Amino acid sequence: MSENQPLTRFRRKAVKVEDALQSIISYISKAKTEKVSLEKSLKRTLSEDIQTSHPVPHFRRSGYDGYAVQSKDVEQASKQSPVYLKLVDDIPCGEVPGRRLESGQTARIMTGAMVPEEADSVIMLEATEQEERNGSTYVKFTKPIQSGKNITPIGEETAEGEVLLTKGTEVNPGAMAVLSSLGFSQVPVYKKPQIAVLSTGTELLEVDEPLEMGKIRNSNTYMIAGQIQHNGGEPVIIEKFPDDVDAARKKLQSLLANQELDMIITTGGVSVGDYDIMTDIFLNWEGKTLFNKVQMRPGSVTTAGVFRDKILFGLSGNPGASYVGFELFVKPSIERMLGGLGVQDKQTAYLKVNYTKVNAFPRFLRGYYEVKDGELWAQPVGLDQSSALLSMKDTNALIVIPPTKTGMKAGEKVNVIPV
Ligand SMILES: Nc1nc2c(c(=O)[nH]1)N[C@H]1C(S)=C(S)[C@@H](COP(=O)(O)OP(=O)(O)OC[C@H]3O[C@@H](n4cnc5c(N)ncnc54)[C@H](O)[C@@H]3O)O[C@H]1N2
Ligand code: MOO
């Protein structure tokens, strides 16, 4: 079809998945930032590089409970001819050594305590004995020790001024340790994108309503709310709409104008049916429709548009198709808002079973992949239909089947997109 002909309900131009994603990403700006308390920072995304303001460790630290010595004092020590050093200090953790350690002297020291400047090694407690002589305590050493042994030097882990965590990194428990040690009781993070999610369809019942003939419970809203949270966003659940285009348009206008919301996701009503209200809205609204058909299965009717800098995603109503649409387009958009690139994270795996269905468009199968004997293997899970609901609970990746007239054989390589 010509570029100039307007899109209509039936006349749609199917764009490639990559081009569709690119057209969305070009409108996405970074999320606002905030500070959260350290204990609430897990899984949040850093909005600033985290730099060391001091070396780690910042003082010479004993690695063992034992005695700090000058190694040259015990150079000649042996079982036959032990060396005795006078005990002059006891250094617990958290204290600065109170006196100089002269040659011929030793100080008892605990793991993690600051080593006296004059000492160059620590001898473990188990390798020594204490003796009392003329009112003084002496420590017996029967082996020499290498200079530097059992002392963690200043900056062993990192020097001052190093970037330890970069902007865009998701905080994990190890990062929480780093942030604590550097004094970050408040952590700079991107605000979680606030994403409105609502389903359209007169056939939809609330989750707690009894089933009725011809009707189904709304599962997309909660599945998508889960996908949003799983990817670092905050779902804002909006009451489902019936298939009434004017009421839906009004509601959407107010959501698009709401400054608190960063994105809006609808499901259902994007196909060619008589009650597909989102199709009508995307053909005539104050925003710009970016695409209303994508070269993909399921979810070929996935639609997206932009109003000011806010993306409106019109995902398909079929559960499988809306799941896939989210993973391919919304997930990278959230990632982009949180400082990432907003690209698909793809890996290569071997297909575990034959796949015989022929496709005109690339197919994104709900699948499960795992490592077997050091290789990644992927297989589809459950029913492949766009309308299938159960397969998503076992899905950990989308398996990408390129357009094919012959299907694919077990053992062939495929791309997988982890979810
Ligand atoms: N004549 C044509 N018919 C259809 C076409 C087509 O090209 N020509 N495309 C088919 C494909 S492919 C898909 S996918 C669906 C997409 O339809 P919509 O996105 O407009 O979705 P609905 O019609 O509203 O619903 C489809 C299906 O999903 C159920 N649904 C809807 N919302 C929810 C929800 N929140 N939770 C659970 N299930 C939901 C709905 O009841 C329908 O069964 O169109 C095909 N038809
Ligand atoms: O949108 Mo449908 O899911 O292409 O099968």
Automatic annotation (TrEMBL):
One of its GO terms (molecular function) is metal ion binding. Pathway: Cofactor biosynthesis; molybdopterin biosynthesis. It catalyses: adenylyl-molybdopterin + molybdate = Mo-molybdopterin + AMP + H(+). Its EC number is 2.10.1.1. SUPFAM superfamilies: MoeA C-terminal domain-like, MoeA N-terminal region -like, Molybdenum cofactor biosynthesis proteins. Pfam families: MoCF_biosynth, MoeA_C, MoeA_N. Its cofactor is Mg(2+). GO terms for cellular component: cytosol. Residues 196-336 form the MoaB/Mog domain. One of its GO terms (biological process) is Mo-molybdopterin cofactor biosynthetic process. CDD domains: MoeA. It is an enzyme of class 2 (transferase). Keywords: Magnesium, Metal-binding, Molybdenum, Molybdenum cofactor biosynthesis, Transferase. Belongs to the MoeA family. NCBIfam families: Glp_gephyrin, molyb_syn. Catalyzes the insertion of molybdate into adenylated molybdopterin with the concomitant release of AMP. This is Molybdopterin molybdenumtransferase.
